[in-house]
Description:
Number of strands of chain A: 5
Number of helices of chain A: 5
Helix content of chain A: 25-40%
Strand order of the largest sheet of chain A: 2-1-3-4-5
Structural class of chain A: alpha/beta
Distance between the termini of chain A: 28 Å
Oligomer: homodimer
Radius of gyration of chain A: 14 Å
Amino acid sequence: MVLALDQARQAAQRGETPVGAVIYDPVADKVLAQDGNRVRELHDPTAHAEGLVIRAACQSLGNERLQGLDLYVTLEPCPMCAGVISAARISRLYYGASDPKSGGIEQGPRVLSHPQSHHKPEIYGGICEAEAADLLRGFFAERRGD
Amino acid sequence: MVLALDQARQAAQRGETPVGAVIYDPVADKVLAQDGNRVRELHDPTAHAEGLVIRAACQSLGNERLQGLDLYVTLEPCPMCAGVISAARISRLYYGASDPKSGGIEQGPRVLSHPQSHHKPEIYGGICEAEAADLLRGFFAERRGD
Lengths: 146, 146
């Protein structure tokens, strides 16, 4: 999660919402992908940190599924990213801050917990929550000119 | 929808689930993007037809939002694609066959109708439904060796 928080900080420096993510192989003890939000830079509404690292890890493995791998992300994933996590068959999801406005895991449509979800990873929320939330609060306060 | 059905047929020929999609600008009467499912070809769990055409249209316009544009897709979008449609601010969604197993619009977590959805397009289902459903049925029957 330390790497994901660093990616979130880098995203903020690029003017993107500060969310960072990492794909980690816990058996090989290897980071397969790390990135932050790039929606504005790439003009891509799907370029949330989670989507970018999942796509990057799939490319590096030549496989559209990531069984056995862990996703670390600094903010609770939105419904779109929850769908990506399910489609990619991520084994464990670790996230930082909850997102009452846009989250889709333990808030809103709870995409992964819905009986129709084809795959639900193990889910662990609140990892480094304060630091992840502080980053977001600081970013939005600065944009509002607080 | 005729173009989307053609893309679905081409996807089947590539061994992909036969779903096709088109982004259309109804004011300029112009097709901005058309594609079919490429999950296996690209090793990308997000490469559903809807995601590919939305990303392509965003690239061609240099904008992560597609206000005013229509999405035609042969199958009811899944929760992941419903999230992409909301994030991209698509104005009108026209889809073909319903998907009781994996759909996320009028089935399952109903991502766009959830009060937490940031954007809900106009939604029109059942467009060329029989033809879209026949394509899917034929594809899966062939794979099962019926």
